[in-house]
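Progress narrative, work stream C.
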Amino acid sequence: MSGTNSTATTQSGAPISSLPEAQDVAATDGVLGVFSGKAQIAKPADIVNAGMPTDVVRTTDLNEALSGSALNQYVAQAATHAAASDASADRSETAAGASAASSALAAQTGAQVATIAAGVNADADRAQNGADSAQATAAGAGAILAQNTALASMVANNPVQFTNKGSWDASKNSPALTSGTGAEGDFYSVTVPGETSLDGVTDWELLDGAWFHNGVWNNLKKAGYPTIAQRFQGLLGVIAEGVTLNSRTSGAFTIKDALGYILTAIDGLGNISTAGKQLLLGSTLLDCNAKGQFLFGMRDAMGNLAWGVRADGSPAFPIGAARADLGPISVASNDNPNGVIVKDKNGFVLLDTSGYYAIKTGDFTAEEIAERDRMQLARSAATMAGPGDMLRARPVWGISISIATGQSEMMGYVSLPALSLTQPYDNITFGEDPRGFDFGIDSAAWTPRGGDPSPKPLVAVNVDQTTYETLDLPASLVYKPATVDVAVPTVTSGDPQIQITTTDTSIDFTTGFSVGQTIQCAGFTGTAAVNNETGGEWYTHYITITALSAQSITGTCDGVWYSWTPVAVAGATGVSIAPLRITKDFGEQQSIAALNFYRGMQLAFRGLPADASRRLALLSCCVSGTTIEQLSKGYSIPLFDRISQSFTIAKSQCDGLNTTSGCFLIEFCQGGSNTDTDYATYYPLLAQYFADVIAEAKEKFGQTKDPFIEIVPISGMNLPSTGIMDVCRAQVDYVLATPGAYIPTVGYPAIDYGPHYSSNGERYVGAMRAKVRHRVITQGLAWKPLIMEQATLRGRTVMLDCHVPYPPIRSLKVWRGQEPVLYDTLGFAAYDTVTNAKLGIASVSIVGETQIEIVLSQEPTNPIWVTYGDSSCDGSGNIFDSDPAVSSDLYEWVEGNGAPYSENIADYIGKPYQLCNPMINYAIQSVKG
């Protein structure tokens, strides 16, 4: 029999491991034998003193039973008892039992017991027969042991399997073992202790293990216990405290009381019958009470009836039971007013005899919400556990390329100064910038920045928007005069002016500033701090220099959306004046941060510090301020051709390096320029655009698999207000319907400059994209973003079911410009589906891990659109999941490098970006509930 997963059985084969009080008792063909359970055998004194007439076996510790003096005493007593036995059949059977005890002992002590048994009085026929039986049993036990294969987990600190070779006499070295010679894993149980020398070991005690491992014999102390102690059996039964455990019945096993009446029996098929009327299974009581209402009932640990079966076979529940779940439906009583409600598995009412639901005008009960929450949690978990897309191209080439497409949000517009100035891994681009040189709305071809298309480390570059020349920005420049005075010049037309002067002659503004440059101030107090300093919700209050001297600056009070009025100050101290890079140039690209973070996770997933044989590259063919029509193939200005041109250059460079190449990903963020495009127009244009880009990639690289498509739907201040979020909704619907396409995130949570992101904001969005990209492409797992899935309208209440990747959902402040905000509606809005009229919202609440409740100001007459993050909420919202992921990049702010003082946030600086998933901007129509 196998040494693992063995189960002790009765003579008829039924398992006994579940018997009450039988954990220390098991069955075998003798009083002593191979025992499964605790290592215990019969105590000799108990057997002898009992006179052996009733086949009683009591147990004690194995070490005590096997001690030398106890053994000798037991054998002598057994022999004496056998010799003096009566010749009747009953006494013969008793003597045989004593001899069998010797037999089983021999199974554990081998030749030693056989030798002792052989010395029993030769005139006692029954004793001699017992000795012969002992020898036969020992041989049989050895054969069984030789067949066993025990797991090495039975032996301390041994993680491998071993082969059980049976017993070994360490006194006589039988069978003969030789130092350094054996088969790996051979294992012998010591049945006779001794001092045979094996590989330097001379002390072998009873039931030690001799194990051949790594070319030598090892002594595993007492390792023979789990090998020897497999079975233990009484001849006719085992008595414990007056209760007899017996297998010699018509069934497989019985339990009898002291008078011999059967209490419990198990037949050969495992069926259990009991004389009692109750069966306790854990804390559940199965009760057959013929005198009560039920023929059969189930009670809890407190005795309360859960349910039962009447004499006619009908199921019933006790009075006051709240509900019954019957597979796909639930039946519940309802006290408002009295009645019965039948619901389907999703919690929707199928039958209501009370009329309560028919007259409801709003509220969802806590029970309903909890049930919807459970169902949605299950759906979300099933979605995330599903298989990923294994049919798209993956980065398997020598150089695998991701191409960024779209408009300004994807290409680092106004995201200055760039932060990703060093390459942390081995990512490359072709030339000095993945955007190439000229990326305006013109007929220029894609050409490498710097003229040399050879692979170079992928880093962010600051580029002038007019000349496309690389900007050489100073690392840091800040003036801190001892005192400053602020005057407000009189202007007759145009924006207000401000004049800042200082008497601090150590300051020379002309060494770092120039006319036309934008600058910012910090350190003012009072009303001057509110007006004269850069910051505010929409990145406002900066100065465009119009005149300059060593200790004087004059400029226009400018802002993103409007001008501002300065405050005059005399002798202000602690003021700082630094550049502000609000110019419409290009800097940090989110696609660079995304590829860097992705590369780090990819290498870690593969357990590599680097892999020069398989690198990642980035190309960009984004064009600021373009519509989907302008970006598409066949437009009068051939912007689309830059994709083909960049692919051709990349392929040529890879061929020159004698390495394979291909495109594994198309990145896309666009839509802000399609301000008057409806859903029906945008969707097919988007689908055709990707079909054309995929075709170019497959043609230029000769690859057979389509690349993945990674879309960041349009959001924030760039979200068009056409229809019911038409452009954004078309982008989301395209992804949901297209294999290989996925949405990693949206951009509205980032710190922004209105329609565009700050440098830290770009890197945050890039990290969000990389996190999901790793899951989808590297790990091959399913993904769906946090999104509304169903809106159930009842009266004036809307209940939203949301897919939540990492529950629970929660509300967090989100950046709107340079200030974090929490919207009253958390970003939700509602519209009549017939008139498109906006409806009032009284409240929005998170009521579950996946559930959001919206209460309208009044009950609508038609179904409604529910939107999240539409233009009425600045394309933003406050709903996030609980994903604990963080970025590898850290938040950076350096005074004087051009970043605004409003981004000097102590709680952020030097810490990774938090990457919990924001809800995706989207709109769905309600269903009646």
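Work stream C, second folded protein:
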Amino acid sequence: MDYEDLQINADLYEALMKKDHEKVLDICASIPKGPLHTVTIHEDTVIHIAAYHKKSDLVIDLLNMVPASDSHKLTWQNSGGSTILHETATNNTTVVAAAEMLRRAPMLLSMTNKQGETALFYAARHGKTKIFKFLHDQVTKTNQGPDLKTFLLRDDRSTILHLAVLSRNYWMAHEIAVKHKHLIHEKDEDEMTPLQLLSCRTLDTPPKNFFVRLIYNCMMTIRTVAVMSYDKKTTKFSYFLMLVLDPNLEDTSQMLSPLKKLRKLKFKCEWAMKLVKLLVKQDTSWEHTASRLTKHKSKFHQYGQISSTTQQEEIITYESAVRLPDTPLLLATKHGCTQIVEEILNLYPQAIEHIDQDGRNILHVAILNRNHEIFDFVVKTKYAKERLRGKIDNDANTLLHMVAEEVPDIDSDLKGPAIVLRDNIRMFKKVATICTTLDQMKLNSRSKTAEQLFYENNDKRRSEAKEWMIENAKNYTVVAVLIATVAFAAAYTVPGGPDPKTGQPILKKKPLFFFFTVADAMSLSAALTSVIMFLNIITSSYRFKDFEKSLGRKLNSGLAMLMVSVAMLMVAFAATLILTISSGRKWTDITLYVISFFPVIIFVFTYFQLHKIRFWIMYSKAKKMVENWFSCLTDPKPAVWYSGRGTTSRI
């Protein structure tokens, strides 16, 4: 390519990026190929780039520059095999342009790129609803039966339903599953069905904030009232409500940004559950289960244990076997997709018996991946718990062994090692409550009990947790000592100074002086208390059981005292500032109050935001205790529970 052509491409590309439509049209009018001129190194024409960048008006103008005799040239494909119709399928604003393209060159609809994707498939891959609806209507008008295969399947066996699920456009996926039911059971090159792909990612959930959730739940109700009012033409405000709250509204240009996001979330959540219900109803993959007979026999001691050649050969054969993807039930359990697990078990309770290729049931998988919500859901099902709790996998691992065999977790890097170890210990005790006494004695294929394996696998983490706790305790101690020093010095340099005659503080009778004295004393006391707590942590023994409660409570107590100390020091500072600078004028005092107590407000807000999860857990526990207390009063236990006067029999 000569310099002149390079310069033309540079000018065209720059004009397209700057949305200078007039310049693009002028340049195209001055070159031989016009809009069909290739402007990029990937052989994209001017129309390709204009369509990709959502410039529908420009695309129409460029198409009008192509003579009717050259309409066949509109089928030009770039180096990736994409046509101009493929580029329109990447956004929702070029439906009109796509219609014009098909009017001029209908063969564009069935052309595929080098991956075997038609424009319809491209729209599904990018999750673009409007252009997908348009292209799907065009396809179904002209193609039926076996002819549809080209539009629904690409070269790697992935279907448009697979791609719609991956793009997380649940409405589109639901429409495809309804209109092309045979795609529900189709598998891609990795032997994954659409439901399996859906199970590999957590679904969108409604907001947890109370006020946001209130608006979220009231959307449809308010919208219904607004529509009724709007039909009667009594108020324009009802139309505004309908505009901002209708979850099915397509035009969202005038919608407030927060409401637009909330509407989008509601739309995704509702259609995700509809899709889950549809796919789960058609899926019975849980029926194909591994045998209950494991590769290893359960043992309670290691005496006389000899690994036979036959057993070793079985283990090698098992490990070298081709592994198929897990079923949606177990994939959802691994990835924490609670909605799919609950839907499967509610629709098919017998699916709880399903076992994977490793001989693990749903409880094994939930524990291994630390999915507490799914674990609790299954355990609450009494008969399921009884059926599953004593089972072992192909390596003779019980449910307790699974606590020690933790899978890598990205989120664990964000927590301190002491927090992770504490959670593991609590998980071990939680699982132990549903296991039998014999489960705690069983040996796995490596001749380890669950407790031995847990201590062995968490020994390194205990060392890391010890260093982490000591380092943090030392840092907090330094801060606490500094605060105590400042608070102690402030006690001897009171605001206004002492009276030369009596030695008493001059501002002693001021109300704020009392607040200063109390705040300073509390700051000093809390700081010294936190120092004691942190020193106690540094000198602890760091046994496994210490990480469960003792060390965590000491660290939290020390931090709480440190936070109180900082807060009280801020209050003392605010009181001192007002006592010494206040002029008695109303607005001056208000300004001083705001400036002085501003750090206190910020501190309280950030502290509660940091520990809101902990406060929520405490609130939930307190609420549950109150509910249990009231239930005991309103619904006393049957008489069969009592075996004697004032005593309760053990069952």
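The chain has 29 helices and two strands. No further action is required on this item.
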